[in-house]
User: Which sequence fits this backbone?
């Protein structure tokens, strides 16, 4: 999970690697606030996978790359 | 098979006091710090941390009785430094770097480098927005596999 100056830098870094998912740093910042904003709440409770998926979906991260659930039996509390 | 929720209230409370101590101390607490704060024995704290690790609520070091990650905070130095709330923090990745500001509910400054060229990158977060909107974030590992190896992810 890295930052890059531009598409050119990302493309060079990827080289022959299979690409994952790319979003703007603005989208990343929105995602981080939605995902981590409750981390220090005194009444924090773990989120379900469905709740985590809803955060991703609400930000438009809806393709298969962002799917938390496929055949997994463990939580994704990240 | 569906995931069965197993984190009980006692473990949630342990997790919450551990996170609070991390922020209050500015670094990861030890089992002894949490034992002193809660009245539990160090062994009981360690057992609880192991359960939280299994639940992905903490990440422990593999060979010592120490915390590696209390996401988004890193207990060890990384390439993602965040100045926020009058302290420097380490984050586990670019996502977590913004997460430090989010968790603390403060503005901040992220210092890292372009993964390609190594040039320093500094991003200020103000009112939950970055000041350089031209940068890109890339994630290699699909979401369903993030916890296969969270340190690599």
Assistant:
């Amino acid at each position: 999970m890295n930052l890059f100056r531009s598409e050119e830098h990302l493309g060079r870094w990827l080289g022959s690697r299979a690409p994952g998912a790319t979003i703007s740093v603005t989208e990343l910042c929105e995602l981080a606030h939605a995902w981590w904003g409750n981390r220090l709440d005194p009444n924090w409770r773990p989120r379900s996978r469905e709740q985590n998926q809803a955060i991703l979906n609400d930000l438009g991260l809806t393709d298969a790359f962002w799917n938390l659930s496929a055949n997994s039996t463990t939580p994704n509390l990240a | 098979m569906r995931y069965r929720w197993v984190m009980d209230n006692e473990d949630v409370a342990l997790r919450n006091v551990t996170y609070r101590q991390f922020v209050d101390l500015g670094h990861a607490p030890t089992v002894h710090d949490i034992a002193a704060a809660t009245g539990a024995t160090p062994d009981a704290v360690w057992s609880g941390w192991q359960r939280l690790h299994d639940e992905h609520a903490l990440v422990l070091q593999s060979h010592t009785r120490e915390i590696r990650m209390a996401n988004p905070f890193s207990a060890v130095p990384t390439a993602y430094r965040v100045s926020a709330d009058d302290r420097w923090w380490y984050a586990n990745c670019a996502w977590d770097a913004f997460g430090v500001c989010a968790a603390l509910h403060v503005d901040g400054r992220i210092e890292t480098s372009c993964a390609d060229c190594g040039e320093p990158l500094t991003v200020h977060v103000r009112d939950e927005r970055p000041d350089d909107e031209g940068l890109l974030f890339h994630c290699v590992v699909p979401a369903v596999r993030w916890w296969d190896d969270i340190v690599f992810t």
Notes: Strands of chain A lie at 2-4, 21-24. Confidence is low (pLDDT under 50) at residues 71-78 of chain A.
